[in-house]
Amino acid sequence: MPLLTRILSPDDEGIVSAAALLRAGHLVAIPTETVYGLAADATSAPSVAAVFAAKGRPSFNPLICHYADAQAASAHVAFSPLAGRLAGAFWPGPLTLVLPRLAGCPVDARAGAGLPTLAVRVPAHPVARDLLAVCGFPLAAPSANLSGGVSPTNAAHVLADLDGRIAAVLDGGPCTVGLESTVVDLSGERPLLLRPGGIPVEAIEACIGRMARGHTPGTAPASPGLLAAHYAPALPLRLDAEIVGKDEALLAFGPALPAALTFNLSPSGDLAEAAARLFAGLRWLDAEGARRGLRGIAAMPIPNAGFGEAISDRLRRASAGSP
Ligand code: TXA
Ligand code: MG
Q1: Which atom of ligand 1 is nearest to the CA of 38?
Q2: Which of 18, 79, 268, 322 has the fewest CB atoms nearer than 10 Å to its CB?
Q3: Residues 36-66: b if buried by 16+ CB within 10 A, e if exposed
Q4: Model confidence at 1, in pLDDT bands (50, 70, 90)?
Q5: What is the tens place of the pLDDT at every residue in 10-52?
Q6: pLDDT single digits (tens) 132-146
Q7: Gap from CA of 119 to ligand 1 centroid (Å)
Q8: How far is the CA of 61 from the centre of ligand 2 (A)?
């Protein structure tokens, strides 16, 4: 039977209600500065299992654990000097560190897909921080969308995917960053960039030097969630468009090409603005394009520096299943 999904306001009463639901083992979607997360008590095996079930997420794809501060995280994973430097520079904020689990780490093994490492992050959103402080336990939280779909950057996006499947959404307004956290694996010999995201790679490399990238072709992916096809709208997505077909909607950046239906990420060509609007734009074009009988979405080229690297990464994955 579907649940009635409550909408909680981001005040003390809403935060206390969200914490009580989480403590009782329920799932609550929460705002972060990057995207909305589908949160559960990370130390509770049934709650963690419910996250995978609600999203339809494969069990081999591990979840990020969110903490109130770096001290709380350092009780569960082994911080290296580089990890300490990155946490000092970028936490709270859109950076996730993959570190070795400490013996006795109470986070449910299935939250980390049984891996010896755990992905940890301290979010910057004030509502998420207040909630974590009230809870007193870490929150396992993947993006609050159905597996493989577009990440949610407001409460309405969450409800479009998960209404009736989760106990509540804590409505903290639109996410300011709009792209998921940058994921850096510090558990091996060299720092490895697993996912570009809300902290530009250049800023991280200015702090710790050059990182290796992705995973070596021919080996298992270092980050099981980094599947080629992800973030996918229902309409096929075509990249680096220079003209737009009559039956296509346009995802524009800068001065827009002529098109029947356009969502402009940033008319002035501002990459931070484009990042914040990317997922809302994809969702809107997908729904409105289908309603008007269009057959696909064409995306204009995005420069590959700063937030552009993460935007291009998401667009590539969103188009991976398209013909
Ligand atoms: O900004 C964000 O990171 C958002 C908000 C809610 O915090 N969360 C998010 O979670 O994007 P999710 O589950 O959509 O993406 C987590 C990524 C996946 O690619 C997953 O494979 C990777 O982090 N990951 C998690 N634990 C890992 C681990 N132990 N080793 C390698 N990769 C890991
Ligand atoms: Mg996700």
Answers
A1: 6
A2: 268
A3: bbbbbbbbbeebbebbbebbebeeebbbbbb
A4: low
A5: 999 999 999 999 999 999 999 999 999 999 999 999 999 999 9
A6: 999 999 999 999 999
A7: 7
A8: 10
Bridge partners, residue 99, by sequence: 118
Rounded to the nearest 10 degrees, the angle between the axes of helix 12-23 and helix 126-135 is 50
Interval between CA 138 and ligand 2 midpoint (Å): 18
What distance in Å separates the CA atoms of residue 141 and residue 289, rounded to the nearest whole number? Answer: 31
User: What distance in Å separates the CA atoms of residue 219 and residue 264, rounded to the nearest whole number?
Assistant: 38
Asked if residue 85 lies in contact with residue 205, where contact means CB atoms within 8 angstroms, the answer is no
Q: 3-class SS at 252? A: strand
Q: Which amino acid is at 61?
A: N
142 CA distance to ligand 2 centroid (A)? 6
Residues with CB under 5 Å of ion ligand 2 are 143
pTM higher than the cut 0.85: yes
Q: Whole-angstrom Cα distance, residue 152 to residue 237?
A: 18
Closest Cα to atom 29 of ligand 1: 118
Q: What atom in ligand 1 is closest to the CA of residue 197?
A: 1
Ligand 1 within 6 A of CB of 32: yes
**Strand, helix or coil at 194?**
strand
pLDDT range class, residue 232, cuts 50, 70, 90: confident
